[in-house]
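Narrative of accomplishments. A recurring question from our advisory board has been how the design workflow behaves on a single, concrete structure rather than in aggregate. To address it, we present the structure tokens for one chain from the evaluation set, followed by the sequence designed for it. No filtering or post-editing was applied between the two.
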């Protein structure tokens, strides 16, 4: 069976190909049925995974998929003619059913592990990000702190583009010059979470806990709590912060109370 370049398929689905490379790939799809079948299967995989966002499951399924499509799991069949009964398309359909079963299992089983709870609750603060960028765009060119705002906007643009490694670097550089810029501190913390630097994110966001006058106070507590869920033995710290949020009247109080119930149920 012909080998399929799954890395190239992933790049195509994630929009990481250049226009020329994408057009070339689409031409190959027309002529290569195996490649087209693999693309259809990978699309189904991503749809299933999107339901519960489990990256480790995605990797496990992809490994199993490669084995199936390469014929590894069929090597021990007593009659090689059996293989001919299964086209790549049939394998793709069978794998799709398997994905639905696995997805259903993860959706229906209790989701009470701290790491999985993090995946269920973490979401980039797009509303605040868009508001910050809009405010920066509306300000005139002659403002006194134009350089600071231009640098901040450049960093936040990278956050909005989901270029989190670059955003982290840009915001860290910005804070070397303007260490009190709360917007930069807040979105640096969130960017660090996106690249799985949870301990650093906790340290970056920590000053907001004591600064109750900050506009970022409650949201920073929320993201700190979520970061603690990703730390070994961090659940108690997460609960402590969530209790503070739940006892308040902010926008995250209801979610904090629900998450607390799930965490306490797991104790």
């Amino acid at each position: 069976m012909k080998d399929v370049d799954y890395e190239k398929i992933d790049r195509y689905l994630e929009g990481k190909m250049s226009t020329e490379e994408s057009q070339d790939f689409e031409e190959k799809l027309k002529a290569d049925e195996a490649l087209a079948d693999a693309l259809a299967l990978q699309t189904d995989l991503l749809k299933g995974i999107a339901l519960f966002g489990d990256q480790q499951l995605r990797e496990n399924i992809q490994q199993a998929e490669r084995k199936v499509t390469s014929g590894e799991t069929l090597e021990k069949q007593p009659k090689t003619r059996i293989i001919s009964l299964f086209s790549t398309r049939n394998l793709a359909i069978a794998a799709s059913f398997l994905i639905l079963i696995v997805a259903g299992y993860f959706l229906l089983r209790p989701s009470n592990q701290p790491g999985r709870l993090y995946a269920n609750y973490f979401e980039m603060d797009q509303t605040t990000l868009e508001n910050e960028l809009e405010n920066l765009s509306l300000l005139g060119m002659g403002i006194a702190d134009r350089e600071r705002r231009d640098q901040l906007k450049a960093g936040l643009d990278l956050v909005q583009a989901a270029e989190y490694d670059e955003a982290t670097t840009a915001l860290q550089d910005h804070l070397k010059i303007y260490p009190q810029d709360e917007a930069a501190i807040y979105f640096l913390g969130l960017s660090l979470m996106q690249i799985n630097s949870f301990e650093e994110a906790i340290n970056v966001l920590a000053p907001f806990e004591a600064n109750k006058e900050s506009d970022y106070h409650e949201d920073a507590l929320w993201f700190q709590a979520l970061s603690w869920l990703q730390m070994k033995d961090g659940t108690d710290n997460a609960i402590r912060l969530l209790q503070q949020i739940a006892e308040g009247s902010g926008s995250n109080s209801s979610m904090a109370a629900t998450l607390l119930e799930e965490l306490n149920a797991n104790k």
